[in-house]
Structures are given as structure tokens and as C-alpha cells.
Amino acid sequence: MEMKSAVAALAALAHEGRLNAFRLLVRAGRPGLPAGELARRLNVPPNTLSGNLTILSHAGLVEGRRAGKSVIYSARYGDMTRLLQFLMEDCCAGSSDICAPLRDVALACACEETEPS
Amino acid sequence: MEMKSAVAALAALAHEGRLNAFRLLVRAGRPGLPAGELARRLNVPPNTLSGNLTILSHAGLVEGRRAGKSVIYSARYGDMTRLLQFLMEDCCAGSSDICAPLRDVALACACEETEPS
DNA sequence: TTATCATTTCGACTATCGCCGAATCATGGA
DNA sequence: TCCATGATTCGGCGATAGTCGAAATGATAA
């Protein structure tokens, strides 16, 4: 069951235009961006982008909310996290040297709150 | 340039049969599994699986090496790591609460060498 | 070399995806 | 209400991906 949604999310991301849009939204953080602004920044026709945003949103990767005339899209970090979790599940098969680099990747995503003290 | 290969990897994984095969290889660890054994375990025709393994290998996610009559496939953990890194790049946009769950996912992939003391 | 087994490639069919122009829907302002 | 604007949906065409049976390739052992 989880399998189907993972495939859907991966299929949604397996497209240059959608991956660009998604990454832009990921970088935009919680506030997100209006659809038109996205189309302008990515330099794609609004209707094409709209279809791609629909696909991303069906896959649970983004969501849109209306604000006046605009629809503001933002990344759904929770589902993004679950997808990554699904991909790295049981990745290590007992060999810690496989798993270690993955940890480093996550720790490199260090934000500003890295210092524990 | 990195973009293209990320899309290729995601497209390769955006397929139930291939994702099953890949995950099975990921769990199999470095030793990997012969193609026929994979086909048997996944219950798919050998030629179909062969095509899918070719796609995965072109995407850099798996590799095959010959051992006698069999070709043994194994996951390429390095490229898998790079893909995850690409997906979570700049994920936090300054908000640490976005990034923290991702770190937890990576830390949950804890292997046996988790204990720091 | 010849037989045999594991795997891969070939060929053709079907289904689905992606893109674009045009029409439609939703909102805010005159 | 009527118009302007931002966004989405609809219709279609062309291109691509997926599957399977059948044939070919590669490797081994006698």
C-alpha cells in the first residue's frame, strides 16, 4: 500500500519540469509561492505548470491554498520525509559502511540549529 | 547536468517492478543477487526483469557482474546516496523544524554502530 | 566442439504521458 | 453586474514506456 504511493511520488518527481518546480518549492519553505510566480521563474506556460502542480499534489508532495486571486503552492515536507524514509528502509543490511554516508547526507542538511550545546 | 541524472534515477525507480527489484537489492547488501534469483523472488518473467535491471543500471542505481553462468546484481549505494542528497538539498530554507525530521529519518537508519559512547 | 543453461535482445502491440491552444472557473475591483 | 486577471480544465495529437513471446547471445562443462 505504501508501495503505490511511493511509486506515485517518484513518478511525479521523475520529470524535469516537475522536479524543478518541486525543488523551487522546497527551497521556498513554508510560505510557498503563487502558481504564476512559479511559472514565471521556471519560464514555463501556466497551463503546463498547472498540470504538473496537480500531479505533484496528487502525489502528496505539494499543496495549494487560495490567497485572493492566486493559489499559493508549498512543499509537503512530511510526505517528502516519508518518501526518503521508504527509500532508505533497511538500506544497511548489517553493513554500517553502507549506511554511514547516508547519515552524513542528513547531517549536512544542517540548518541553523546544528549546535547542540 | 546533475538534474538529468536525478530525473533518470527517479524515473527508473518510478515503476513498481523496478522499485521492488531495487529495494530487494538494497536489502541484499553488497553481495547482491543473481538475475534469475531476483526473477524468482519477485515472480516476474526473466526477460521483463532483465529490461528493468538494464534501466536501473543505466540510471546508475545498480550494477551487474558476471559470476559463472549468472550475472549478479547489486545496489550502487554511492549513487543512491547522491540522489537522496540531491532531493534534500537546501530543504530547510532557514526553518530548522522542517529539517529536523529528515535528520531523524537518517539517524533511524542506525545500523549496528549507533552507540557513540 | 557441442549441448545446455542463464540471461539478454528483438519485434510488435498497447497503454500512458506530455504538450499546446482554447475554453472555463474563481476572485477582486469598477 | 460586468470586466480584468490569475489559474485550471478540456480536447487532440505525437511520442514514449511497458509487456510478452520468441530468438539470440554468452558462459560453462563434458
TrEMBL record, chains A, B:
GO terms for molecular function: DNA binding; DNA-binding transcription factor activity. This is Helix-turn-helix transcriptional regulator. It comes from Novosphingobium piscinae. SUPFAM superfamilies: Winged helix' DNA-binding domain. It comes from the Bacteria. Keywords: DNA-binding, Transcription, Transcription regulation. SMART domains: HTH_ARSR. It holds the Pfam family HTH_20. Residues 1-95 form the HTH arsR-type domain.
